[in-house]
Amino acid sequence: MAKVSVYNMEGKEVETMELDDAVFGVEVNEHLVHMAVVQQLANNRQGTQKAKTRSEVRGGGRKPWRQKGTGHARQGSTRAPQWTGGGVVFAPTPRDYSFKLNKKEKRAALKSALSSRVAENKFVVVDELKFDAIKTKDFAKVMSNLGVEKALVVINDNDTNVVMSAKNIPTVKTASTSTINVYDILKYNTVVVTKDAVNTIQEVYA
């Protein structure tokens, strides 16, 4: 089992903690990690883009000039794609970009992402994150004490003071143990996790 240091909010090491190899020590499957990221980005796409084809644009019902004898190329409508105001060739239409991954694949991808962060020493465990009030300055100070800048902060429960204190820091994102995902784990340089959150993750995914 991998051992990691547990820090307090002042950035001082208070204890060590063993991580379950079934979650934080698995062999990284890059293909599944890639698929999980692609799936999340695809599922986030709105797919609402739309342009009109020549059958949908207004007007152009009359033939602009007779077929022969004018010196012009033959034209059947002023709404053909080559005309200004005409329809779009192969116009995009609303569609659903989402696709599914099996539950086992999702779990394996998440474990791989967590294991890669532990292996790279970019996994920081904090004994607790508690604030008496919503203060961005206090949260920024904790991040500075831990020597962390761009971080995903995982907490066990949705503590309003913690979430709101981190909200105005552009390089920090908070997540609960039930909402963590592969994309966010890889997007941020460091994963900061409370001790309670680590235990919950190990219970759920071990």
TrEMBL record:
Composition bias, Basic residues: 60-71
Region (Disordered): 44-86
Protein name: Large ribosomal subunit protein uL4
Organism: Roseburia lenta
GO cellular component: ribosome
Subunit architecture: Part of the 50S ribosomal subunit.
Entry keyword annotation includes Membrane: no
Keywords: Ribonucleoprotein, Ribosomal protein, RNA-binding, rRNA-binding
Function: One of the primary rRNA binding proteins, this protein initially binds near the 5'-end of the 23S rRNA. It is important during the early stages of 50S assembly. It makes multiple contacts with different domains of the 23S rRNA in the assembled 50S subunit and ribosome. Forms part of the polypeptide exit tunnel.
Record-stated family: Belongs to the universal ribosomal protein uL4 family.
Entry superkingdom: Bacteria
This protein's record includes keyword rRNA-binding: yes
